[in-house]
Amino acid sequence: MRITNRTGLRPSRRIRATVVVVAAATLVGLSGCSAPDAGIVTLNFFQFKPEAVTEFASIIADFEAENPGIRVIQNSVPDPDTAIRTLLVKDKVPDVLTLNANGNYGELARACIFADLAGAPVAATVNPAVQNIVQALGTCAADGAKEVNALPFASNASGILYNPTIFAQNGVTVPATWTELVAAAEKFKANGVSPFFCTLKDAWTASPAFVNLGGTLMPDGFFDALRGEGANVSSGTVSFRKDFATAAQKEVDLFRYCQDNFASRDYNAGNKAFANGESAMYLQGSYAIPAIRANNPQASIGSFPYPVTDDPDARVVVSGVDVGIAIGRNTAHPAEAQKFVDYLMSPAVVTGYSEAQSTFSPLANATPNTDTALAGLEPYFTAGKIVGFIDHQIPAAVPLVNLLQSLVISGDAGTFLSDLDSEWSKVAARTTTQRQGK
Fold this sequence. Notes:
Keywords: Signal, Transport
InterPro entries: Bact_solute-bd_prot1 (IPR050490), SBP (IPR006059)
Signal peptide: 1-35
Number of strands: 10
Distance between the termini: 31 Å
Oligomer: single chain
CATH topology of the largest domain: D-Maltodextrin-Binding Protein, domain 2
Protein name: Extracellular solute-binding protein
Pfam family, one: SBP_bac_1
């Protein structure tokens, strides 16, 4: 069943895009069961972000106006990870896809589900540091050569959000080292100000701090080496217990500065509390800014990268590709699909989306985002001093967020690291990768 939604689109654009919202049980419709219009090529566009349906509908409308021989059907589903796997089982890979560039994407890329975009001229317009984040998640190694299976369309950044007004009122400057961060937290605590508002009712909210701490401190090539060990983590050269002990302990140390009820507060409560000035800092990234402003458009928001060590020059920003764009490897319309991807990756479209969704442009030489809330992170992103989200390297079957939740509540770093190694080993022992024929 198809439900067509043509409402809620920006009046400044001509809207001729069709939005299809389906449940996983009806995914057969995503492969295009309706009769095509004569002379019109129809592309199935799998789009995973429900909050961006309207934005993409407007983009599609403009594309179709410039390309009257191509029609794009945007398919947005409630559970995109399940939906895409259901489509793969049915051998119905969409023509063009947006996907969050995470561990699930990496598994699909290694299974050679997506086309190789390395030779597309538009690939050369991407910031190499951002493309490297996508590449590190996994690629199809057809004929021994690693491919480019997705291009980054929009990036986020994870740092520490802070309230500049509260900092000024308490005479605290933005910390550049770990020692300064702890000292700032201590000063706020002594002054009766909550240093951090934490939201452990939603287990995943323990992850942003961990990915920054672990991503900065882990040795180069850690996850490649870990995957190479297979299930033999305990006897391997790298492991979470061997290489993440400092990161785990610093995670515990940070959460000691949360408000008293942090275990019963959720993410929505955290966004509202920080918007209303109930803490000096918030352990969330750029993706939280729109939600904070929805609670209080005048919220005082600044940002800075995690000062994980006492070397200010060691600071980096953890960045993820919030939206990656791929083409189905066996699409029946490769030229038209590439034309649509080229349009999506054009500077005007990428910039417009970034401004609307509070993201960073992944294009080389892009105009920096001028949002004042991002000013503390933007220079690192533009300079390429970024690392990928390490939780994107960890299979979804590993209950990382639940383990992190237990870690920050119990303070038991040793058990957390042992459990993480054990869960990784279990998944590695039962994981095989199936490759789609080229």
